[in-house]
Amino acid sequence: MPLTLNIRRTLLITLCPVAMLVAGCKSAAPPASAATAPQAMPVQVEPVKLAPVPTSDTYVATIKSRRSATMQPQVDGNLTRIFVKSGDVVKAGQVLMQIDPLKQLATVQQQQGTEAQKKAVYQYNEGEVERQRGLYEAGVTSKQAYDQAVQAFQNSKGDFDSSVAQTNTQKQQLAYYRIRAPFAGIVGDIPVHLGDYVSATTVLTTVDENADLEAYIYVPTERAAEVKLGLPVEIVDTDGSTIVKSRISFLSPQVDNSLQGILVKAEVPRTAQRLRNGQLVKARITWNTNPAPTVPVLAVTRIGGQAFVYIAAKRGDGYAAHQVPVTLGETVDNTYPVRTGLNPGDKVIVSGLQMLQEGAPVKPLG
């Protein structure tokens, strides 16, 4: 029994310091209010500035060549030769096709025979006039016989000259059986085939000169008061990049009733080799240029089709990210004009957008 009492006293003496140590550790824990606050994320910002922004509209335009020919024959017949194919580049006067000329060749040869016959009569009467003149001057024949020879000569001369003219006409007609390019250009579609019978209403092909192009643009009548000669026009591709710059060079005095639009034309410089006759493009007409707020393209994010930007908004002693919905115009170089949502001087965040969220503390740089 005394041994058991001693063991209990020893355990009590040993456990008391341990309990005091544990109690001391609990009291040393820091209060919850002293937790570390989130640090501000450094971000690049650019202030919203006023910049010249054009007011423009984009329309569908058609590129047309001022030199474009539809090839149709001037004579009837069957096609015997096609010397070119679609897309070939041809020179002025180059033969494109040939219509069977045999019937016309026979006509020419027949006319040449008639001409030769009339020439023989003409030459005979010419000699007879000289012979009758000599006899008349010698007193062998009468004046009447001489006058009759002169009359026959003049008739045969007129008949011969007429025959020569008819021969030349038939030869010129023969030239129509060979279809030639009216100018240098590119051959279009060829809808006919060898052996086809063609007439003056048959379209054989087209020849287009891929130069001296114009953009045909129909402007809505609502813009009638603003459209005028000299307004800037940009031909743009599907990405909105400018292909070529021009200006309005023609303004129709009439309204197209079917489209309720006004036709305007803009010349396309020869250097714009990317455009072809008949091509549909987008044409951007600039009406005026006014100062407006702009933001870099990289600063814009889109959610469900709505455009947003983050700005560094003043929050207490620092700044916080604030998401602002904006209405944008068409891109100008690498910026968007802002129609609504921002004011000059706002600090637009242009870096780390994927890491931002509403109210996050930020540290503006730049």
Strands, helices and their partners?
Layout: H1 2-27, E1 41-47, E2 49-65, E3 68-71, E4 77-82, E5 89-90, E6 95-99, H2 102-138, H3 143-175, E7 178-180, E8 185-187, E9 197-198, E10 205-208, E11 213-220, E12 232-236, E13 242-256, E14 261-268, E15 280-296, E16 301-303, E17 306-315, E18 318-328, E19 335-340, E20 347-349, E21 361-365
Parallel strand pairs: 1-21
Antiparallel strand pairs: 1-20, 2-11, 2-15, 3-10, 4-6, 4-9, 5-8, 6-7, 8-10, 11-14, 12-13, 12-15, 13-14, 15-19, 16-17, 17-18, 18-19, 18-21
Helix pairs in contact: 2-3
Report what the structure shows.
- With 366 residues, the protein is α+β, with helices and mostly antiparallel strands.
- It has four domains: 41-52 and 292-365, conserved putative lor/sdh protein from methanococcus maripaludis s2 fold; 58-66 and 207-289, Beta Barrel (Elongation Factor Tu (Ef-tu), domain 3); 74-98 and 178-205, OB fold (Dihydrolipoamide Acetyltransferase, E2P); 101-176, Helix Hairpins (Orthogonal Bundle).
- It has helices at residues 2-27, 102-138, 143-175; strands spanning 41-47, 49-65, 68-71, 77-82, 89-90, 95-99, 178-180, 185-187, 197-198, 205-208, 213-220, 232-236, 242-256, 261-268, 280-296, 301-303, 306-315, 318-328, 335-340, 347-349, 361-365.
- It has a six-stranded antiparallel barrel with strand order 2-11-14-13-12-15. The protein has a four-stranded antiparallel β-sheet with strand order 3-10-8-5, with no helix packed on it.
- Strand 18 and strand 19 form a beta hairpin.
- Residues 1-35 have low confidence and may be disordered.
